[in-house]
Structures are given as C-alpha cells and as structure tokens.
Amino acid sequence: MSEDSETREIDSLVTSLRRHLERRQRAGIRILPNEMPNKQRTMPAIGGQEKAPQRTAGDLFSEPSPALGAKTLEELRAGIGDCRLCKLCSGRTNLVFGVGNPHARLMFVGEGPGRDEDLQGEPFVGRAGQLLNDIITKGMGLKREDVYIANVVKCRPPDNRNPEPDEVAACEPFLKKQIDLVKPEIIVGLGKFAVQALLQSKAPITKVRGQWHRYHGIKLMPTFHPAYLLRNPADKKLVWEDIKKVIKELRGENG
Ligand code: SF4
Q1: Which positions ≥6 away from 42 have C-beta within 8 Å?
Q2: CA separation for the pair 212, 136 (Å, rounded)
C-alpha cells in the first residue's frame, strides 16, 4: 500500500470514529463501550422510535435508584416508575406490579401479564386468574387479599409469547425486591418461567414441581401455571397435590 493510500485510509477511519463519537456524545453517552463493562450502557432512540435502553436490571441495582432503596412496596412501585429497562415497555398498556397483602405468608409468582392483566394493571385477572382464585379460595380456604401475587416480568410480552431471557434478567430484580419486602414464608412458583427464574435453573417444571425447594431461605413450591391447566385440565390433580403440601406447611403440619 502506498503512503498516500495509507494516509487516506487513516483519514477515513479517523473521520468515521469522530462521527461515531459525536453521535454518542449527542445521545449523552460519555463512556466507551468496554470502558465500564459492568456499568450502565444506554442506547439512544433511533429515528424517534421508542427504543428500550440496553441497561440491565443488575445495572439498575448497582447505582443509586429509588427502587434499590425501597422500604415498602409502594416505594418500590414508585421507584420502578415508567420503567424502560427492557423492550417489553413499548407494548404495554399498564405495568403490572403486584397485588395483595404486603405481609402475606404466602406469595404466588407467575410468569408475566396477559391481555386482561395488561389492560387492568393487575396480575391474574383473566381466565387463568380465575383459576388461581379458585385455588386460593376454594382449595386453600383463603382470600385473594390474604396472599401476594406477582409476576417475573411486569409488562406483557407481545401476543402472550414467553418472556425472553434478557427481559427476565431485566425485570427479575424487581421481583426479588418484592419478595424481600413481603417476606413470605412460602412461595408458590407458577409455571416454568417463574420457577426457573426463582431457582436459577433450567430444570423442567415437570421435574421440579411438587417438591420443596428454597429461594433465599424461603420455602418454594413449584407447580404448573393456571394457564397450562386451562389447556391441560387433567393435570389439575397434580396441582392439587402440590397445593395440599402448601396448605400443610402453612398449618405447620409438615413435621
Ligand atoms: S418488563 Fe420489567 S424491566 Fe421490562 S420494562 Fe417492564 S418493568 Fe421494566
């Protein structure tokens, strides 16, 4: 390569780099990509379209945040605000935080809001929610207000698809904080995604359901999601077996 063409190539690279840095500066990004690998990385909106920032929830909790310091569920909800940590923010009608007794002994954790939940802003209010209500009231003899109900992701995945790993990772700390604040004695994990998120495991729900596990010292009973039971009613008897174990535990009858 001649000296002239080398010079032109270097000039071209410098120009591209300068433009790239100017774009980042205009977007308010002051760090280089690998400068702080565990810290915040943001992504500017492109073409005016809403774009989920490339922050992770881990980042959220590694920096001062209203959510991090929450002492109550209300403070946590306020800290989450109009969250844009993952791409699910762009399709939601309502962020579905959680509902129930803030000091519940029993907490149910599902996967994410569906259409009805998204519209109403409350978890488990559709057909699957009615089934969960039946489990709580008819099966356990409790009231819905006695327990606390939340999901792993707080915003509805489009077309009720499964939450993607980055979405679960982004939202999971909110659930952890909810659990930390409610301090339930028992968690019932509803379905594969909730259970895998809580157990940090890829084990299939069919392998782990019906047995006691631990989530940070809290007893965790994995069972099928009510939406699954609507499609597979024959498995209701398995869920009932799991729920009976939870009832015994709540009554202190498990030894
Ligand atoms: S799903 Fe969770 S992390 Fe994603 S935008 Fe909603 S509240 Fe934020």
Answers
A1: 27, 28, 29, 53, 54, 55
A2: 19
| Protein residue closest via CA to atom 3 of ligand 1 | 171
164-192 residue pLDDT tens: 999 999 999 999 999 999 999 999 999 99
Helices within 29-152 (DSSP H only): 57-60, 73-80, 115-120, 127-134
Cα–Cα distance for residue pair 57/53, rounded to 1 Å? 11
Centre of ligand 1 to C-alpha 249, Å, is 33
Q: Whose CA is nearest to atom 2 of ligand 1?
A: 171
Q: What is the pLDDT of residues 56-80, one digit of tens each?
A: 444 544 444 568 689 999 999 999 9
- pLDDT of residue 207 exceeding 80: yes
Whole-angstrom CA distances from 86 to 31, 76, 115, 154 are 21, 18, 18, 10
> Is residue 55 predicted with pLDDT exceeding 70?
no
The pTM (predicted TM-score) of the whole model is 0.77
Which of 77, 94, 171 to mutate for ligand 1's pocket (most ligand atoms within 8 Å of CB)?
A: 171
Residue nearest to atom 4 of ligand 1 (CA): 86
Q: Given the CA of residue 84, which atom of ligand 1 is nearest to it?
A: 5
